[in-house]
């Protein structure tokens, strides 16, 4: 359950770091290092190292020298609260203000620090308590519960499979635009075929359309899918 202590009591920097650490572990089992955090945050490693020390002293994360970084129970509560803010704002921007899904990430990065807990609650109510954001990421409830779809990377799909798109990474806005132009959005149904020999590509058709879309690793490693039954 999310603590009664509000994330607004943390600095913007602390909020960002906790959200980054949570997000890096959300769809991956890889250990989170200060180097990876620095790359994600776009800052120097020395800056991250100092920040990690402060967050550890606040009881928000575990970090041994030269070791991996992980959230404490309290740190995770704060991180989940920040993720909830970010994804609700993204959903609001798309559903209510007409933003495209490739436009919302940076906007939400700014707004998530400015809105109050009450506004977050009102946005949730206005949207009808959505469970997924425009990219398919789960939106935590007010109590901190998160329901993840049973999904794997499109890169792991087999030729002949029929799958449903469950989540698409929002890290690359140009890639999001390409997916949108080709009907590869959350909820889309894809038929998988083998690409050209030695091309390291998958060929897919989307939503029953005949157009073949060739996807390389950059694309297939940004999409998570779940298998469909033959009757779907």
Automatic annotation (TrEMBL):
**Record-linked SMART domains:** FeoA (SM00899), HTH_DTXR (SM00529)
Per UniProt, residues of the HTH dtxR-type domain are 10-72
Q: Which UniProt keywords apply?
A: Activator, Cytoplasm, DNA-binding, Iron, Manganese, Repressor, Transcription, Transcription regulation
Say if the entry is tagged with keyword Chloroplast.
no
Q: What compartments host this protein?
A: Cytoplasm
Record carries keyword 4Fe-4S: no
Q: Name one Pfam family in it.
A: Fe_dep_repress
Q: Which domain of life is it from?
A: Bacteria
Q: Which PANTHER family match?
A: IRON (METAL) DEPENDENT REPRESSOR, DTXR FAMILY, TRANSCRIPTIONAL REGULATOR MNTR
Q: Cite the record's note on assembly.
A: Homodimer.
Record's family?
Answer: Belongs to the DtxR/MntR family.
Q: What is this protein called?
A: Manganese transport regulator
């Amino acid at each position: 359950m999310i603590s009664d202590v509000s994330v607004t009591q943390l600095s913007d920097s602390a909020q960002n770091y906790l959200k980054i650490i949570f997000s890096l572990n959300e769809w991956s089992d890889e250990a989170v290092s200060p180097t990876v955090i620095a790359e994600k945050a776009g800052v120097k490693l020395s800056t991250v190292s100092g920040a990690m020390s402060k967050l550890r002293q606040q009881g928000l994360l575990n970090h041994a020298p030269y070791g991996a970084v992980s959230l404490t129970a309290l740190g995770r509560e704060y991180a989940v609260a920040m993720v909830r803010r970010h994804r609700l704002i993204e959903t609001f921007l798309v559903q209510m203000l007409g933003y495209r899904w490739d436009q919302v990430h940076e906007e939400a990065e700014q707004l998530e620090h400015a809105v109050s807990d009450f506004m977050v609650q009102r946005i949730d109510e206005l949207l009808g308590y959505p469970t997924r954001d425009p990219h398919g990421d789960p939106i935590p409830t007010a109590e901190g519960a998160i329901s993840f779809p049973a999904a794997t990377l499109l890169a792991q799909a087999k030729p002949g499979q029929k799958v449903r798109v469950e989540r698409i990474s929002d890290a690359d806005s140009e890639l999001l635009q390409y997916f949108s132009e080709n009907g590869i959005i959350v909820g889309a149904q894809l038929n998988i075929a083998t690409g050209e020999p030695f091309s390291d590509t998958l060929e897919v058709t989307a939503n029953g359309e005949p157009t073949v879309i060739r996807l390389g690793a950059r694309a297939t490693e940004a999409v998570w899918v779940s298998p469909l039954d033959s009757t779907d």
